[in-house]
Specification:
346 residues, two-stranded antiparallel sheet, 10 strands, 15% strand, globular
Length: 346
């Protein structure tokens, strides 16, 4: 029986940028004509949100350091475990999958390694040039095996041997490499990206962009897979990889609720209360609270990307894994709350 390590981190794009970009969405909303003036009035904001905003740039620096504390702990656990491959659950935001096909689940069993240049022109915390290239190793044999075992266990997942629209990696997967190698020690672990259609009814109609504040009637896309189905997929993945010949890290890649998905808050801040509810259940090992969460609740809370974490929770439940370390990094002004977890290998 193979050993398995469970990890979860955020792939928040702003961590790839400089501190002065962290609150860019909130700053844009403060100028948005469709958001009521009383909603934009700081006097009406939650007290923690006011305090963060008034702290200015030091709040951004503290947010980065809190995230890096967790990410570095995850990297230490990864290096100690020395996996043969990492299976990463992440969302595709109209990046590789577009109008021609949107699979609910897809194992990217890419046959060839990727050479990617993920930096933009506006600077990054490593001061690397925009043309800086990264070699990302793929694990096609592991992907082929996992797909076969899932199909045999009645999970009819899609799979791909090469990229479709995007020739590198969606940011949910690319940022795993960038952040777990934040200190630039090198990152040589092969990866199996495992996409979840987290955005469901909003993925094609919004072309992967932020939903509009006000919308006329529009054609919504079919929904995302249910949280329970993602949980069960995680269980099936754990069973398959436990029976494999490899040491495997199973990882969730995403932040939790996103401000731009919280229509009930006019996209001004994430749903801290519901994120805390799920996080408390994670810490307590209350898997039933996760299993009972509905897709409607996920969408209402702006937690679409947490479907990646439902997969991880299912896997850890199946393996009866012990939570070794976790942290909840709360924010009201930096778009999303972030969680990092490290489970003991089983």
């Amino acid at each position: 029986m193979a050993d398995i390590l469970g990890l979860g981190i955020s792939h928040w794009p702003r961590l790839h940028d400089l501190d002065d970009t962290f609150a860019k969405r909130l700053k844009a909303n403060l100028q948005h004509p469709d958001i009521p003036a009383d909603v934009k009035d700081m006097a009406n904001w939650p007290a923690p949100m006011q305090a963060e905003w008034e702290a200015g740039m030091p709040a951004a620096a503290a947010h980065r350091e809190s995230l890096l504390t967790g990410i570095r702990k995850a990297r230490v656990a990864l290096d100690d475990f020395k996996p043969d491959a990492i299976v990463v659950w992440g969302d595709d935001q109209y990046e590789n999958f577009r109008d021609d096909v949107i699979p609910p689940f897809c194992v990217l069993a890419y046959k060839d390694d990727l050479h990617v240049q993920p930096h933009g022109p506006n600077g990054n915390p490593w001061n690397e040039p925009a043309d800086h290239s990264f070699h990302v190793r793929m694990a096609p044999q592991v992907g082929h095996y996992l797909t076969s075992r899932l199909i045999e266990s009645s999970f009819d997942v899609a799979y791909a041997y090469k990229p479709l629209h995007r020739k590198d990696l969606s940011h949910a997967f690319m940022n795993v490499v960038l952040y777990l190698d934040y200190d630039r020690k090198g990152f040589d672990y092969p990866m199996v990206p495992f996409t979840i259609n987290c955005y469901g009814s909003d993925v094609i109609c919004n072309r992967g962009s932020v939903p509009k504040i006000k919308t006329t009637e529009r054609h919504l896309d079919p929904p995302a897979p249910s949280p329970l189905r993602c949980f069960e997929l995680g269980r099936a993945t754990a069973r398959a990889m436990r029976a494999s010949p490899w040491r495997i890290c199973l990882m969730a890649s995403s932040s939790w609720s996103h401000a731009f998905l919280c229509a009930k808050y006019w996209q001004m801040h994430p749903d801290v209360e519901n994120d805390r509810r799920l996080y408390d259940a994670l810490v307590k090992g209350d898997y039933e609270a996760w299993r009972q969460t509905t897709l409607a609740q996920v969408v209402d809370a702006g937690q679409q990307e947490v479907l990646n974490w439902f997969c991880l929770m299912g896997a850890m439940y199946e393996l009866n894994a012990h939570l070794a370390w976790s942290d909840f990094v709360e924010t009201y002004i930096f778009n999303s709350n972030k969680v990092t977890v490290v489970y003991d290998p089983v």
